[in-house]
Amino acid sequence: MSEVTGSYAAPAGAGATAGVIHDIGYQRYTGRRLSRRYSALSMYTHSVRTAYGLGRSGKAKIFPFIVVGIVFAVAVIAVVLRSQFGRVFINYLQLADGVTAPLLLFVAVIAPELVSRDLRAHTLPLYFSRPISRSDYAFAKYAAAATAMWLLLACPMLLMYIGGLFSQNGGFAGAWRETTEFLQGLGYAAIFGLIYAAISVLIASLASRRAVAAGAIVGVFLVTAPVVGVLTSFGGDTLQKVAPLLNPVTLVQGLQVWLFGGNGPDIGSFGPLYGAVGVALIGVCLMLLLARYRRVS
Amino acid sequence: MALIETFALTKRYPKVTALDALTVQVEPGIIGLVGANGAGKSTLIKILLGLLPPTSGGALVLGIDPAQDSAAVRARVGYMPEHDCLPPDLVAAELVTHLGRISGLPRTAARERASEALRHVGLYEERYRQVGGYSTGMKQRVKLAQALVHDPDVLLLDEPTNGLDPAGRDAMLALIHRIGTEFGISVVVCSHLLGEVERICDSVVAIDAGRLLRADRVSAMTVQRDLLAVEVDEGTGQLLARLGELGLTVRQDGRLLLVPLESDETYDRIIGAVAELDLPLHRLEQRRHRVAELFANAPAGPPPAQPPMEASHV
Fold it and tell me: Do A1 and B167 touch (CB under 8 A)?
Protein backbone atom coordinates (compact mmCIF):
# COMPACT_ATOMS: atom_id res chain seq x y z
CA MET A 1 0.00 0.00 0.00
CA SER A 2 2.83 2.37 0.83
CA GLU A 3 4.03 2.27 -2.75
CA VAL A 4 0.58 3.17 -4.04
CA THR A 5 0.36 5.95 -1.47
CA GLY A 6 3.60 7.35 -2.75
CA SER A 7 2.46 7.35 -6.32
CA TYR A 8 -0.18 9.96 -5.75
CA ALA A 9 1.47 11.82 -2.90
CA ALA A 10 4.36 12.48 -5.28
CA PRO A 11 2.87 12.20 -8.77
CA ALA A 12 6.01 13.56 -10.38
CA GLY A 13 7.95 10.57 -9.09
CA ALA A 14 5.34 8.13 -10.30
CA GLY A 15 5.20 9.82 -13.66
CA ALA A 16 8.97 9.63 -14.08
CA THR A 17 8.90 5.83 -14.15
CA ALA A 18 6.37 5.99 -16.97
CA GLY A 19 8.63 8.31 -18.91
CA VAL A 20 6.73 11.50 -18.09
CA ILE A 21 8.98 14.24 -16.83
CA HIS A 22 6.66 16.54 -14.97
CA ASP A 23 3.23 16.40 -13.47
CA ILE A 24 0.83 18.75 -15.22
CA GLY A 25 -1.74 18.46 -12.45
CA TYR A 26 -5.46 18.15 -12.84
CA GLN A 27 -7.04 19.74 -15.88
CA ARG A 28 -10.68 20.57 -16.23
CA TYR A 29 -12.44 19.20 -19.31
CA THR A 30 -13.62 21.99 -21.54
CA GLY A 31 -14.49 19.97 -24.65
CA ARG A 32 -17.86 18.88 -25.94
CA ARG A 33 -20.30 16.85 -23.91
CA LEU A 34 -22.60 14.85 -26.14
CA SER A 35 -26.27 14.09 -25.74
CA ARG A 36 -28.04 11.28 -23.97
CA ARG A 37 -28.57 9.62 -27.33
CA TYR A 38 -24.82 9.38 -27.75
CA SER A 39 -24.60 7.78 -24.30
CA ALA A 40 -27.16 5.15 -25.29
CA LEU A 41 -25.39 4.60 -28.61
CA SER A 42 -22.08 4.11 -26.78
CA MET A 43 -23.77 1.57 -24.56
CA TYR A 44 -25.05 -0.20 -27.67
CA THR A 45 -21.74 -0.34 -29.56
CA HIS A 46 -19.88 -1.42 -26.45
CA SER A 47 -22.41 -4.20 -25.95
CA VAL A 48 -22.17 -5.44 -29.54
CA ARG A 49 -18.39 -5.62 -29.10
CA THR A 50 -18.82 -7.37 -25.76
CA ALA A 51 -21.03 -10.01 -27.41
CA TYR A 52 -18.09 -11.02 -29.63
CA GLY A 53 -15.58 -10.73 -26.79
CA LEU A 54 -13.92 -7.68 -28.37
CA GLY A 55 -12.21 -5.45 -25.83
CA ARG A 56 -12.18 -8.36 -23.43
CA SER A 57 -9.82 -11.20 -22.63
CA GLY A 58 -8.87 -13.84 -25.20
CA LYS A 59 -10.92 -16.40 -23.32
CA ALA A 60 -14.08 -14.39 -23.92
CA LYS A 61 -13.51 -14.48 -27.68
CA ILE A 62 -13.27 -18.27 -27.99
CA PHE A 63 -16.94 -19.22 -27.95
CA PRO A 64 -18.33 -16.41 -30.16
CA PHE A 65 -15.71 -17.05 -32.79
CA ILE A 66 -16.28 -20.82 -32.78
CA VAL A 67 -19.91 -20.07 -33.71
CA VAL A 68 -18.79 -17.51 -36.29
CA GLY A 69 -16.50 -20.20 -37.72
CA ILE A 70 -19.32 -22.75 -37.95
CA VAL A 71 -21.68 -20.39 -39.76
CA PHE A 72 -18.95 -19.23 -42.13
CA ALA A 73 -17.98 -22.86 -42.81
CA VAL A 74 -21.52 -23.63 -43.91
CA ALA A 75 -21.53 -20.53 -46.10
CA VAL A 76 -18.21 -21.46 -47.69
CA ILE A 77 -19.50 -24.97 -48.41
CA ALA A 78 -22.59 -23.45 -50.02
CA VAL A 79 -20.44 -21.20 -52.23
CA VAL A 80 -18.09 -24.02 -53.24
CA LEU A 81 -20.91 -26.46 -54.02
CA ARG A 82 -22.65 -23.86 -56.10
CA SER A 83 -19.59 -22.93 -58.11
CA GLN A 84 -18.69 -26.60 -58.69
CA PHE A 85 -22.10 -27.93 -59.60
CA GLY A 86 -23.78 -24.78 -60.85
CA ARG A 87 -26.79 -25.47 -58.65
CA VAL A 88 -27.93 -23.94 -55.38
CA PHE A 89 -27.73 -26.55 -52.62
CA ILE A 90 -28.04 -24.17 -49.66
CA ASN A 91 -29.82 -20.85 -50.15
CA TYR A 92 -29.85 -17.88 -47.76
CA LEU A 93 -32.95 -19.02 -45.88
CA GLN A 94 -31.65 -22.57 -45.59
CA LEU A 95 -28.35 -21.28 -44.22
CA ALA A 96 -30.19 -19.64 -41.32
CA ASP A 97 -32.38 -22.68 -40.70
CA GLY A 98 -29.38 -24.98 -40.93
CA VAL A 99 -27.43 -23.22 -38.19
CA THR A 100 -30.36 -22.72 -35.80
CA ALA A 101 -28.72 -24.86 -33.11
CA PRO A 102 -25.40 -22.96 -32.96
CA LEU A 103 -27.40 -19.73 -33.23
CA LEU A 104 -29.46 -20.68 -30.22
CA LEU A 105 -26.33 -21.54 -28.24
CA PHE A 106 -24.81 -18.23 -29.30
CA VAL A 107 -27.72 -16.15 -28.03
CA ALA A 108 -27.92 -18.24 -24.86
CA VAL A 109 -24.31 -17.33 -24.14
CA ILE A 110 -24.20 -13.69 -25.22
CA ALA A 111 -27.45 -12.50 -23.63
CA PRO A 112 -26.23 -13.40 -20.11
CA GLU A 113 -22.85 -11.95 -21.07
CA LEU A 114 -24.49 -8.61 -21.86
CA VAL A 115 -27.05 -8.49 -19.09
CA SER A 116 -26.42 -10.92 -16.23
CA ARG A 117 -22.80 -9.84 -15.88
CA ASP A 118 -23.85 -6.29 -14.99
CA LEU A 119 -26.29 -7.64 -12.41
CA ARG A 120 -23.71 -9.99 -10.94
CA ALA A 121 -21.00 -7.33 -10.64
CA HIS A 122 -23.55 -4.68 -9.49
CA THR A 123 -22.39 -2.40 -12.28
CA LEU A 124 -25.81 -0.83 -12.83
CA PRO A 125 -25.32 2.01 -10.28
CA LEU A 126 -22.34 3.16 -12.37
CA TYR A 127 -24.58 3.44 -15.42
CA PHE A 128 -27.70 4.80 -13.77
CA SER A 129 -25.74 7.60 -12.07
CA ARG A 130 -24.91 8.84 -15.58
CA PRO A 131 -27.18 10.63 -18.09
CA ILE A 132 -28.36 7.34 -19.62
CA SER A 133 -31.78 6.21 -18.37
CA ARG A 134 -32.93 2.80 -17.29
CA SER A 135 -34.96 2.24 -20.45
CA ASP A 136 -32.05 3.48 -22.60
CA TYR A 137 -29.97 0.79 -20.99
CA ALA A 138 -32.56 -1.95 -21.56
CA PHE A 139 -33.12 -0.97 -25.21
CA ALA A 140 -29.39 -0.70 -25.87
CA LYS A 141 -28.80 -4.20 -24.51
CA TYR A 142 -31.68 -5.66 -26.50
CA ALA A 143 -30.62 -3.93 -29.70
CA ALA A 144 -27.04 -5.09 -29.18
CA ALA A 145 -28.05 -8.74 -28.72
CA ALA A 146 -30.29 -8.60 -31.80
CA THR A 147 -27.54 -6.93 -33.84
CA ALA A 148 -24.95 -9.48 -32.75
CA MET A 149 -27.29 -12.27 -33.91
CA TRP A 150 -28.02 -10.48 -37.17
CA LEU A 151 -24.33 -9.94 -37.92
CA LEU A 152 -23.67 -13.60 -37.25
CA LEU A 153 -25.94 -14.48 -40.20
CA ALA A 154 -25.56 -11.39 -42.36
CA CYS A 155 -21.78 -11.59 -42.83
CA PRO A 156 -21.76 -15.20 -44.11
CA MET A 157 -24.76 -14.32 -46.28
CA LEU A 158 -22.76 -11.48 -47.79
CA LEU A 159 -20.05 -13.99 -48.63
CA MET A 160 -22.65 -16.25 -50.27
CA TYR A 161 -24.04 -13.25 -52.16
CA ILE A 162 -20.66 -12.30 -53.57
CA GLY A 163 -20.03 -15.94 -54.50
CA GLY A 164 -23.53 -16.19 -55.96
CA LEU A 165 -23.10 -13.12 -58.16
CA PHE A 166 -20.03 -14.70 -59.73
CA SER A 167 -21.50 -18.18 -60.22
CA GLN A 168 -24.94 -17.20 -61.54
CA ASN A 169 -25.24 -16.95 -65.31
CA GLY A 170 -28.61 -15.30 -65.72
CA GLY A 171 -27.19 -11.90 -66.62
CA PHE A 172 -28.84 -8.83 -65.15
CA ALA A 173 -32.06 -10.65 -64.32
CA GLY A 174 -30.09 -13.33 -62.51
CA ALA A 175 -28.19 -10.75 -60.52
CA TRP A 176 -31.45 -9.06 -59.62
CA ARG A 177 -32.96 -12.33 -58.44
CA GLU A 178 -29.82 -13.06 -56.43
CA THR A 179 -30.06 -9.64 -54.80
CA THR A 180 -33.71 -10.12 -53.89
CA GLU A 181 -32.94 -13.47 -52.30
CA PHE A 182 -30.00 -11.95 -50.43
CA LEU A 183 -32.21 -9.17 -49.06
CA GLN A 184 -34.77 -11.77 -48.01
CA GLY A 185 -31.96 -13.60 -46.23
CA LEU A 186 -30.99 -10.40 -44.40
CA GLY A 187 -34.64 -9.89 -43.45
CA TYR A 188 -34.87 -13.43 -42.13
CA ALA A 189 -31.66 -12.87 -40.14
CA ALA A 190 -33.25 -9.75 -38.64
CA ILE A 191 -36.36 -11.72 -37.59
CA PHE A 192 -34.08 -14.30 -35.99
CA GLY A 193 -32.20 -11.59 -34.14
CA LEU A 194 -35.24 -9.63 -32.98
CA ILE A 195 -37.20 -12.62 -31.64
CA TYR A 196 -34.36 -14.68 -30.18
CA ALA A 197 -32.81 -11.63 -28.53
CA ALA A 198 -36.12 -10.43 -27.04
CA ILE A 199 -36.68 -13.75 -25.27
CA SER A 200 -33.05 -14.28 -24.28
CA VAL A 201 -32.33 -10.80 -22.94
CA LEU A 202 -35.52 -10.86 -20.88
CA ILE A 203 -34.62 -14.21 -19.31
CA ALA A 204 -31.01 -13.14 -18.75
CA SER A 205 -32.14 -9.96 -17.00
CA LEU A 206 -33.81 -12.09 -14.34
CA ALA A 207 -30.73 -14.12 -13.41
CA SER A 208 -27.44 -12.78 -12.15
CA ARG A 209 -25.58 -16.03 -12.72
CA ARG A 210 -24.60 -16.46 -16.33
CA ALA A 211 -24.74 -20.26 -16.33
CA VAL A 212 -28.25 -20.25 -14.86
CA ALA A 213 -29.40 -17.68 -17.40
CA ALA A 214 -27.91 -19.62 -20.32
CA GLY A 215 -29.56 -22.83 -19.13
CA ALA A 216 -32.91 -21.10 -18.72
CA ILE A 217 -32.74 -19.63 -22.24
CA VAL A 218 -31.93 -22.96 -23.88
CA GLY A 219 -34.63 -24.52 -21.71
CA VAL A 220 -37.35 -22.13 -22.89
CA PHE A 221 -36.43 -22.79 -26.51
CA LEU A 222 -36.25 -26.55 -26.14
CA VAL A 223 -39.03 -27.34 -23.68
CA THR A 224 -41.71 -26.09 -26.04
CA ALA A 225 -40.35 -28.07 -29.01
CA PRO A 226 -41.86 -31.48 -28.04
CA VAL A 227 -45.21 -29.77 -27.45
CA VAL A 228 -45.17 -28.51 -31.01
CA GLY A 229 -44.08 -31.95 -32.18
CA VAL A 230 -46.90 -33.74 -30.41
CA LEU A 231 -49.55 -31.27 -31.53
CA THR A 232 -48.49 -31.33 -35.17
CA SER A 233 -48.44 -35.14 -35.18
CA PHE A 234 -51.70 -35.83 -33.44
CA GLY A 235 -53.68 -32.59 -33.63
CA GLY A 236 -56.39 -31.73 -36.08
CA ASP A 237 -55.79 -29.87 -39.30
CA THR A 238 -56.00 -26.38 -37.84
CA LEU A 239 -54.08 -27.31 -34.73
CA GLN A 240 -51.27 -28.69 -36.88
CA LYS A 241 -50.95 -25.35 -38.62
CA VAL A 242 -50.96 -23.14 -35.52
CA ALA A 243 -48.96 -25.41 -33.18
CA PRO A 244 -45.59 -24.05 -34.42
CA LEU A 245 -46.54 -20.72 -32.81
CA LEU A 246 -45.79 -22.22 -29.42
CA ASN A 247 -42.05 -22.61 -29.96
CA PRO A 248 -39.78 -19.69 -30.83
CA VAL A 249 -37.78 -21.79 -33.28
CA THR A 250 -40.82 -22.95 -35.27
CA LEU A 251 -42.47 -19.54 -34.91
CA VAL A 252 -39.50 -17.94 -36.64
CA GLN A 253 -39.57 -20.61 -39.34
CA GLY A 254 -43.31 -20.04 -39.79
CA LEU A 255 -42.71 -16.31 -40.24
CA GLN A 256 -40.12 -17.14 -42.88
CA VAL A 257 -42.59 -19.34 -44.73
CA TRP A 258 -45.21 -16.60 -44.62
CA LEU A 259 -42.93 -13.71 -45.62
CA PHE A 260 -40.43 -15.35 -47.97
CA GLY A 261 -42.06 -18.64 -48.99
CA GLY A 262 -39.13 -20.90 -48.17
CA ASN A 263 -39.21 -24.41 -46.74
CA GLY A 264 -40.61 -24.83 -43.26
CA PRO A 265 -43.63 -25.84 -41.26
CA ASP A 266 -47.01 -25.96 -42.99
CA ILE A 267 -48.77 -22.82 -41.78
CA GLY A 268 -51.65 -22.86 -44.25
CA SER A 269 -53.29 -19.44 -44.44
CA PHE A 270 -52.34 -18.51 -40.87
CA GLY A 271 -49.42 -16.34 -42.01
CA PRO A 272 -50.83 -13.07 -40.63
CA LEU A 273 -51.42 -14.80 -37.30
CA TYR A 274 -47.73 -15.71 -37.23
CA GLY A 275 -46.89 -12.10 -37.95
CA ALA A 276 -49.13 -10.84 -35.16
CA VAL A 277 -47.77 -13.37 -32.66
CA GLY A 278 -44.20 -12.49 -33.59
CA VAL A 279 -44.78 -8.76 -33.09
CA ALA A 280 -46.73 -9.33 -29.88
CA LEU A 281 -43.99 -11.59 -28.51
CA ILE A 282 -41.35 -8.92 -29.07
CA GLY A 283 -43.63 -6.25 -27.59
CA VAL A 284 -44.42 -8.23 -24.46
CA CYS A 285 -40.79 -9.22 -23.89
CA LEU A 286 -39.66 -5.59 -24.20
CA MET A 287 -42.37 -4.35 -21.86
CA LEU A 288 -41.38 -6.91 -19.27
CA LEU A 289 -37.74 -6.01 -19.79
CA LEU A 290 -38.45 -2.31 -19.20
CA ALA A 291 -40.52 -3.17 -16.13
CA ARG A 292 -37.63 -5.25 -14.84
CA TYR A 293 -35.16 -2.40 -15.27
CA ARG A 294 -37.46 0.11 -13.67
CA ARG A 295 -36.96 -1.66 -10.36
CA VAL A 296 -33.60 -3.37 -10.40
CA SER A 297 -30.58 -1.59 -8.96
CA MET B 1 -25.16 29.51 -5.53
CA ALA B 2 -25.39 26.73 -3.03
CA LEU B 3 -23.94 23.39 -4.07
CA ILE B 4 -26.82 21.36 -2.74
CA GLU B 5 -30.07 22.50 -1.18
CA THR B 6 -32.95 20.47 0.14
CA PHE B 7 -36.32 21.80 1.24
CA ALA B 8 -38.37 19.72 3.65
CA LEU B 9 -37.15 16.71 1.73
CA THR B 10 -39.08 13.63 2.75
CA LYS B 11 -38.87 10.06 1.53
CA ARG B 12 -41.22 7.46 2.94
CA TYR B 13 -41.13 3.79 2.19
CA PRO B 14 -44.08 1.60 3.12
CA LYS B 15 -42.48 0.72 6.45
CA VAL B 16 -39.89 3.36 7.23
CA THR B 17 -39.36 7.05 6.79
CA ALA B 18 -35.88 7.35 5.32
CA LEU B 19 -35.82 11.16 5.17
CA ASP B 20 -38.00 13.29 7.37
CA ALA B 21 -38.41 16.92 6.31
CA LEU B 22 -34.70 17.46 5.75
CA THR B 23 -33.84 21.06 5.02
CA VAL B 24 -30.19 21.84 4.55
CA GLN B 25 -28.02 24.00 2.37
CA VAL B 26 -24.36 23.35 1.68
CA GLU B 27 -21.77 25.54 0.03
CA PRO B 28 -19.08 24.27 -2.36
CA GLY B 29 -16.09 22.60 -0.74
CA ILE B 30 -15.54 19.26 0.91
CA ILE B 31 -18.66 18.29 2.77
CA GLY B 32 -18.98 15.39 5.13
CA LEU B 33 -22.36 13.71 5.29
CA VAL B 34 -22.33 11.70 8.48
CA GLY B 35 -24.83 9.46 10.12
CA ALA B 36 -25.13 5.92 11.36
CA ASN B 37 -25.99 3.14 8.95
CA GLY B 38 -29.62 3.57 8.01
CA ALA B 39 -29.65 7.27 8.86
CA GLY B 40 -30.77 8.09 5.32
CA LYS B 41 -27.46 8.96 3.64
CA SER B 42 -27.86 6.59 0.69
CA THR B 43 -31.47 7.61 0.18
CA LEU B 44 -30.40 11.25 0.11
CA ILE B 45 -27.73 10.47 -2.50
CA LYS B 46 -30.18 8.57 -4.67
CA ILE B 47 -32.61 11.49 -4.57
CA LEU B 48 -29.82 13.93 -5.41
CA LEU B 49 -28.92 11.77 -8.44
CA GLY B 50 -32.56 11.69 -9.53
CA LEU B 51 -32.71 7.92 -9.11
CA LEU B 52 -35.49 8.10 -6.53
CA PRO B 53 -38.40 10.52 -6.48
CA PRO B 54 -38.92 12.24 -3.12
CA THR B 55 -42.26 11.67 -1.38
CA SER B 56 -42.50 15.40 -0.73
CA GLY B 57 -40.24 18.40 -0.58
CA GLY B 58 -37.48 18.98 -3.08
CA ALA B 59 -33.80 19.31 -3.73
CA LEU B 60 -31.48 21.33 -5.94
CA VAL B 61 -28.06 20.15 -7.05
CA LEU B 62 -25.98 22.92 -8.67
CA GLY B 63 -29.26 24.78 -9.00
CA ILE B 64 -30.93 21.95 -10.97
CA ASP B 65 -33.84 19.93 -9.64
CA PRO B 66 -32.93 16.24 -10.01
CA ALA B 67 -36.60 15.26 -9.95
CA GLN B 68 -37.21 17.44 -13.02
CA ASP B 69 -34.04 17.08 -15.06
CA SER B 70 -32.13 14.15 -13.67
CA ALA B 71 -30.02 13.66 -16.80
CA ALA B 72 -28.67 17.22 -16.52
CA VAL B 73 -27.75 16.64 -12.88
CA ARG B 74 -26.15 13.28 -13.59
CA ALA B 75 -24.05 14.74 -16.40
CA ARG B 76 -22.38 17.05 -13.87
CA VAL B 77 -22.10 14.72 -10.92
CA GLY B 78 -19.65 11.91 -10.31
CA TYR B 79 -20.86 9.09 -8.12
CA MET B 80 -18.82 6.48 -6.32
CA PRO B 81 -21.07 3.73 -4.95
CA GLU B 82 -20.44 2.16 -1.59
CA HIS B 83 -20.32 -1.47 -2.65
CA ASP B 84 -18.28 -3.41 -5.13
CA CYS B 85 -19.50 -2.47 -8.60
CA LEU B 86 -16.69 -3.26 -11.03
CA PRO B 87 -16.94 -5.99 -13.69
CA PRO B 88 -13.92 -8.19 -12.91
CA ASP B 89 -13.03 -9.19 -16.48
CA LEU B 90 -12.57 -5.70 -17.91
CA VAL B 91 -9.31 -3.82 -18.08
CA ALA B 92 -9.42 -0.71 -15.88
CA ALA B 93 -8.61 1.69 -18.71
CA GLU B 94 -11.28 0.16 -20.94
CA LEU B 95 -13.92 0.30 -18.20
CA VAL B 96 -13.23 3.93 -17.29
CA THR B 97 -13.17 4.92 -20.98
CA HIS B 98 -16.51 3.20 -21.56
CA LEU B 99 -18.07 4.97 -18.57
CA GLY B 100 -16.62 8.26 -19.78
CA ARG B 101 -18.44 7.79 -23.08
CA ILE B 102 -21.66 6.95 -21.27
CA SER B 103 -21.20 10.33 -19.56
CA GLY B 104 -21.11 11.98 -22.98
CA LEU B 105 -17.39 12.34 -23.71
CA PRO B 106 -16.38 11.79 -27.36
CA ARG B 107 -14.31 8.65 -27.95
CA THR B 108 -10.80 10.12 -27.93
CA ALA B 109 -11.54 12.53 -25.09
CA ALA B 110 -12.93 9.63 -23.06
CA ARG B 111 -9.77 7.61 -23.62
CA GLU B 112 -7.47 10.49 -22.66
CA ARG B 113 -9.46 11.44 -19.61
CA ALA B 114 -9.67 7.82 -18.47
CA SER B 115 -5.87 7.62 -18.47
CA GLU B 116 -5.68 10.93 -16.66
CA ALA B 117 -8.24 9.93 -14.05
CA LEU B 118 -6.42 6.66 -13.41
CA ARG B 119 -3.16 8.57 -13.13
CA HIS B 120 -4.63 10.95 -10.59
CA VAL B 121 -5.78 8.09 -8.39
CA GLY B 122 -2.36 6.44 -8.66
CA LEU B 123 -3.15 3.57 -11.02
CA TYR B 124 -1.34 4.77 -14.12
CA GLU B 125 1.05 1.81 -14.24
CA GLU B 126 -1.63 -0.78 -13.59
CA ARG B 127 -4.30 0.63 -15.88
CA TYR B 128 -4.07 -2.15 -18.46
CA ARG B 129 -4.68 -4.91 -15.94
CA GLN B 130 -8.01 -6.62 -15.37
CA VAL B 131 -9.98 -5.16 -12.49
CA GLY B 132 -10.60 -8.63 -11.06
CA GLY B 133 -6.92 -8.92 -10.16
CA TYR B 134 -6.85 -5.66 -8.19
CA SER B 135 -6.63 -5.34 -4.41
CA THR B 136 -9.49 -3.74 -2.48
CA GLY B 137 -7.57 -0.49 -2.30
CA MET B 138 -6.99 -0.44 -6.04
CA LYS B 139 -10.65 -1.21 -6.74
CA GLN B 140 -11.65 1.74 -4.56
CA ARG B 141 -9.33 3.89 -6.67
CA VAL B 142 -10.89 2.66 -9.92
CA LYS B 143 -14.30 3.51 -8.48
CA LEU B 144 -13.01 6.99 -7.71
CA ALA B 145 -11.45 7.32 -11.18
CA GLN B 146 -14.71 6.43 -12.92
CA ALA B 147 -16.49 9.12 -10.89
CA LEU B 148 -13.83 11.61 -11.97
CA VAL B 149 -13.51 10.72 -15.66
CA HIS B 150 -16.09 13.17 -17.02
CA ASP B 151 -14.76 16.07 -14.90
CA PRO B 152 -17.86 16.53 -12.76
CA ASP B 153 -18.59 19.64 -10.71
CA VAL B 154 -19.55 17.57 -7.69
CA LEU B 155 -18.40 14.17 -6.51
CA LEU B 156 -20.72 12.08 -4.37
CA LEU B 157 -18.62 9.49 -2.57
CA ASP B 158 -20.49 6.84 -0.61
CA GLU B 159 -18.27 5.40 2.14
CA PRO B 160 -15.07 5.77 0.10
CA THR B 161 -12.87 4.18 2.78
CA ASN B 162 -14.99 1.06 3.15
CA GLY B 163 -12.92 -2.09 3.46
CA LEU B 164 -9.55 -0.31 3.43
CA ASP B 165 -6.74 -0.91 5.90
CA PRO B 166 -5.49 2.09 7.92
CA ALA B 167 -2.80 2.99 5.40
CA GLY B 168 -5.22 2.71 2.48
CA ARG B 169 -7.72 4.75 4.42
CA ASP B 170 -5.26 7.57 4.98
CA ALA B 171 -4.24 7.48 1.32
CA MET B 172 -7.86 7.63 0.17
CA LEU B 173 -8.64 10.53 2.51
CA ALA B 174 -5.57 12.43 1.32
CA LEU B 175 -6.63 11.84 -2.27
CA ILE B 176 -10.15 13.11 -1.59
CA HIS B 177 -8.73 16.16 0.16
CA ARG B 178 -6.54 16.82 -2.87
CA ILE B 179 -9.50 16.53 -5.25
CA GLY B 180 -11.46 18.98 -3.14
CA THR B 181 -8.69 21.51 -2.77
CA GLU B 182 -6.47 21.27 -5.87
CA PHE B 183 -8.85 19.97 -8.54
CA GLY B 184 -11.54 22.52 -7.81
CA ILE B 185 -14.25 19.88 -7.56
CA SER B 186 -16.68 19.91 -4.66
CA VAL B 187 -16.88 16.62 -2.82
CA VAL B 188 -19.62 15.16 -0.66
CA VAL B 189 -18.19 12.36 1.46
CA CYS B 190 -20.69 10.03 3.08
CA SER B 191 -19.36 8.26 6.09
CA HIS B 192 -20.38 6.76 9.37
CA LEU B 193 -16.91 7.55 10.69
CA LEU B 194 -16.96 11.07 11.96
CA GLY B 195 -13.24 11.09 12.68
CA GLU B 196 -12.45 10.68 8.99
CA VAL B 197 -14.81 13.35 7.84
CA GLU B 198 -13.54 15.78 10.39
CA ARG B 199 -9.99 15.41 9.11
CA ILE B 200 -10.66 16.42 5.52
CA CYS B 201 -13.96 18.29 5.37
CA ASP B 202 -14.74 21.99 5.42
CA SER B 203 -18.24 21.41 6.67
CA VAL B 204 -20.25 18.60 8.14
CA VAL B 205 -23.89 17.66 7.74
CA ALA B 206 -25.00 15.15 10.33
CA ILE B 207 -28.25 13.29 9.91
CA ASP B 208 -29.93 10.76 12.09
CA ALA B 209 -33.11 8.83 11.37
CA GLY B 210 -33.65 11.01 8.31
CA ARG B 211 -33.54 14.27 10.23
CA LEU B 212 -30.93 16.97 10.30
CA LEU B 213 -28.86 16.78 13.45
CA ARG B 214 -26.54 19.60 12.63
CA ALA B 215 -24.93 21.33 9.67
CA ASP B 216 -22.02 23.66 10.16
CA ARG B 217 -18.47 24.40 9.17
CA VAL B 218 -15.93 22.19 10.91
CA SER B 219 -13.84 25.23 11.87
CA ALA B 220 -16.83 26.95 13.44
CA MET B 221 -17.67 23.90 15.45
CA THR B 222 -14.22 23.33 16.82
CA VAL B 223 -13.00 26.88 17.36
CA GLN B 224 -15.85 27.79 19.64
CA ARG B 225 -15.50 24.70 21.60
CA ASP B 226 -11.82 24.35 22.39
CA LEU B 227 -11.46 22.83 25.81
CA LEU B 228 -8.87 22.58 28.51
CA ALA B 229 -8.56 19.17 30.07
CA VAL B 230 -7.40 19.16 33.66
CA GLU B 231 -6.43 16.07 35.53
CA VAL B 232 -5.34 15.93 39.13
CA ASP B 233 -4.18 12.78 40.87
CA GLU B 234 -6.53 13.40 43.80
CA GLY B 235 -9.12 15.92 44.87
CA THR B 236 -10.98 16.06 41.59
CA GLY B 237 -14.22 16.88 43.43
CA GLN B 238 -12.61 19.72 45.37
CA LEU B 239 -11.22 21.23 42.20
CA LEU B 240 -14.56 20.87 40.44
CA ALA B 241 -16.26 22.83 43.22
CA ARG B 242 -13.54 25.49 43.31
CA LEU B 243 -13.59 26.06 39.56
CA GLY B 244 -17.36 26.34 39.71
CA GLU B 245 -16.99 29.05 42.35
CA LEU B 246 -14.60 30.87 40.03
CA GLY B 247 -17.40 31.08 37.48
CA LEU B 248 -16.12 28.47 35.03
CA THR B 249 -18.49 25.94 33.49
CA VAL B 250 -16.83 22.66 34.24
CA ARG B 251 -17.84 19.26 33.04
CA GLN B 252 -16.50 16.08 34.53
CA ASP B 253 -15.51 13.31 32.15
CA GLY B 254 -14.14 10.39 34.18
CA ARG B 255 -10.94 11.60 35.81
CA LEU B 256 -10.84 14.63 33.59
CA LEU B 257 -12.33 18.03 34.12
CA LEU B 258 -13.19 19.82 30.92
CA VAL B 259 -13.21 23.59 30.95
CA PRO B 260 -14.09 25.73 27.92
CA LEU B 261 -11.10 27.80 26.89
CA GLU B 262 -12.32 31.36 26.73
CA SER B 263 -9.02 33.19 26.88
CA ASP B 264 -5.48 32.74 28.16
CA GLU B 265 -6.77 33.86 31.52
CA THR B 266 -8.58 30.54 31.84
CA TYR B 267 -5.19 28.82 32.20
CA ASP B 268 -4.18 31.17 35.01
CA ARG B 269 -7.41 30.66 36.90
CA ILE B 270 -7.13 26.88 36.71
CA ILE B 271 -3.49 26.90 37.75
CA GLY B 272 -4.34 29.31 40.54
CA ALA B 273 -7.11 27.05 41.79
CA VAL B 274 -4.90 23.96 41.68
CA ALA B 275 -2.11 25.74 43.57
CA GLU B 276 -4.54 27.15 46.09
CA LEU B 277 -5.93 23.69 46.88
CA ASP B 278 -2.42 22.24 46.75
CA LEU B 279 -3.44 19.38 44.49
CA PRO B 280 -1.02 17.20 42.50
CA LEU B 281 -1.57 18.37 38.91
CA HIS B 282 -1.20 15.50 36.50
CA ARG B 283 -2.00 17.23 33.26
CA LEU B 284 -3.37 20.43 31.83
CA GLU B 285 -3.78 20.46 28.09
CA GLN B 286 -5.70 22.12 25.37
CA ARG B 287 -7.97 19.73 23.58
CA ARG B 288 -9.60 20.30 20.26
CA HIS B 289 -13.06 19.15 21.01
CA ARG B 290 -14.00 16.34 18.66
CA VAL B 291 -17.04 16.96 16.54
CA ALA B 292 -18.55 13.72 17.78
CA GLU B 293 -18.99 15.13 21.25
CA LEU B 294 -20.62 18.20 19.82
CA PHE B 295 -23.28 16.14 18.16
CA ALA B 296 -23.86 14.22 21.35
CA ASN B 297 -25.01 17.46 23.02
CA ALA B 298 -25.98 19.33 19.90
CA PRO B 299 -28.64 21.98 20.39
CA ALA B 300 -30.72 20.89 17.41
CA GLY B 301 -32.69 17.70 17.55
CA PRO B 302 -33.17 15.28 20.39
CA PRO B 303 -29.91 14.03 21.85
CA PRO B 304 -29.76 10.34 21.05
CA ALA B 305 -29.15 7.94 23.91
CA GLN B 306 -25.90 6.92 22.36
CA PRO B 307 -24.22 9.07 19.76
CA PRO B 308 -25.00 7.64 16.34
CA MET B 309 -21.53 8.44 15.18
CA GLU B 310 -18.64 6.18 15.73
CA ALA B 311 -16.35 8.52 17.58
CA SER B 312 -13.25 6.66 16.62
CA HIS B 313 -10.58 8.74 18.25
CA VAL B 314 -12.10 10.82 20.97
Answer: yes
